[in-house]
């Protein structure tokens, strides 16, 4: 059996872990598919072969979880306006901290910054070319999802 979670809204880490554990205990394989806003895709930089690059992507916490769930090999995301799936890989993003200086209480000059640091909020996101499911397959798949035939939980 296979559970396919089309996740278009944010979900808490505790809830996603509870669902994943329940699927696992029941012996059900699982695929988590976050939705990616079309505006995010259209604002990205095009690369060769239909791939896209987003330098400063702010992933939702469950997207970080899903990416890690795949063993660091990325995750699949669904782009509704394209009616397509894209394989996505996240990696760390560095931001530049401007240098600044000031004088302490004792009159000594102090400084900080002037370097790059790893961002806690942003990731670099690379998207594969879009993979489109044929209309007949897609409508049949969505019909099965709506009637609950593919939901094992």
SSE layout and pairings?
Layout: E1 2-7, H1 13-25, E2 29-34, H2 38-42, E3 45-46, E4 52-57, H3 61-69, E5 75-79, E6 84-97, E7 100-103, E8 109-112, E9 115-127, E10 131-132, H4 135-147
Parallel strand pairs: 1-2
Antiparallel strand pairs: 3-4, 4-9, 5-6, 6-9, 6-10, 7-8
**Which structural class should the secondary elements be placed in?**
alpha+beta
Number of helices: 4
Which overall shape is indicated by the principal axes computed on the Cα atoms? flat
What is the distance, rounded to the nearest whole angstrom, between the alpha carbons of the first and last residues?
A: 11 Å
Number of domains: 1
Q: From the alpha-carbon coordinates, what is the Rg to the nearest angstrom?
A: 20 Å
Number of strands: 10
Strand residue content:
35-45%
Low-confidence stretches: 148-153
Order of helices and strands: EHEHEEHEEEEEEH
Quick one: biggest sheet?
6 strands, antiparallel
Query: How much helicity do the residues have?
Result: 25-40%
Average pLDDT works out at: 86
Short overview:
The chain has helices at 13-25, 38-42, 61-69, 135-147, and strands at residues 2-7, 29-34, 45-46, 52-57, 75-79, 84-97, 100-103, 109-112, 115-127, 131-132. With 153 residues, the chain is of the alpha+beta class. Helix 1 links the parallel strand 1 (2-7) and strand 2.
Task: Describe the protein.
With 153 residues, the chain is of the alpha+beta class. It has one domain (2-92, 123-147). It has 4 helices and 10 strands. Helix 1 links the parallel strand 1 and strand 2 (29-34). The protein is flat and about 70 Å long. 12% of the residues are buried. Mean pLDDT is 86; it is low at 148-153.
């Amino acid at each position: 059996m296979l559970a396919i979670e089309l996740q278009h809204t944010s979900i808490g880490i505790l809830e996603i872990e509870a669902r994943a554990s329940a699927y696992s205990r029941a012996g059900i394989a699982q695929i988590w598919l976050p939705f990616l806003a079309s505006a995010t895709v259209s604002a990205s930089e095009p690369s060769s072969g239909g791939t896209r690059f987003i330098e400063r992507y702010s992933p939702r916490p469950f997207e970080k979880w899903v990416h890690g769930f795949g063993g660091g090999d990325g995750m699949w995301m669904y782009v509704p306006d394209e009616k397509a799936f894209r394989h996505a890989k996240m990696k760390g993003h560095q931001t530049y901290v401007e240098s600044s200086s000031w004088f302490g209480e004792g009159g000594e000059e102090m400084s900080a910054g002037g370097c790059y640091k790893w961002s806690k909020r942003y990731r670099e996101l690379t998207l594969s070319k879009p993979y489109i499911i044929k209309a007949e397959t897609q409508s049949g798949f969505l019909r099965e999802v709506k009637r609950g035939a593919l939901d094992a939980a």
